[in-house]
């Protein structure tokens, strides 16, 4: 077996599209995904799971119906399951997401062009 580290920031060199998470690793039933974000996303929630955002480069705001949280590079935030939220980035931000495999990026329903295909490995 070959042992080699995963360098999340290097993975961003392999794709340019935004709002399309790419899986870089899996642990038990959880996936580690990298994604480029810019602009406004859609309001959504994940009824059955928390969702972790780790900002690797740039800044991200996650809006909630009752407030918001601002994240800078190196910050992490866990959105509780069932909490409606909407990510926003004024300029491109590079993020790692940690969530169970099979979770739609737009939550519990398909929301058209913003809904990404699951299990795309890079």
What brief labels describe this structure?
single chain, seven-stranded antiparallel β-sheet, mainly beta, 122 residues
Quick gist of this model?
The chain contains 1 helix and 7 strands; from the N terminus they run αβββββββ.
What does this structure look like?
The protein has 122 residues and is mainly beta. The chain is built from 1 helix and 7 strands. Strand 1 and strand 2 form a beta hairpin. The chain is globular and about 50 Å long. The model has no long low-confidence stretch (mean pLDDT 94).
Q: What percent of residues are in strands?
A: over 45%
Output the number of helix runs: 1
End-to-end CA span: 19 Å
> Radius of gyration, Cα only, in angstroms?
14 Å
User: Could you give the count of β-strands?
Assistant: 7
Morphology: globular
Structural class: mainly beta
Helix content percent band: under 10%
The helix/strand series, from N terminus to C terminus, equals HEEEEEEE
Average per-residue pLDDT, rounded, comes to 94
Low-confidence stretches: none
What can be said about the biggest beta sheet? 7 strands, antiparallel
């Amino acid at each position: 077996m070959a042992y080699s580290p995963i360098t999340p920031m290097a993975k961003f060199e392999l794709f340019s599209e935004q709002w399309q998470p790419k899986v870089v690793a899996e642990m038990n039933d959880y996936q580690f995904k990298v994604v480029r974000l810019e602009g406004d996303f859609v309001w959504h929630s994940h009824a059955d799971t928390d969702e972790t955002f780790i900002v690797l480069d740039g800044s991200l705001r996650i809006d909630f119906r009752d407030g918001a949280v601002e994240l800078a590079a190196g910050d992490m935030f866990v959105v509780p399951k069932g909490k409606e939220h909407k990510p926003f980035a004024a300029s491109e931000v590079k993020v790692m997401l940690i969530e169970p495999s099979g979770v739609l990026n737009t939550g519990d329903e398909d929301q058209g062009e913003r809904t990404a295909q699951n299990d795309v490995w890079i």
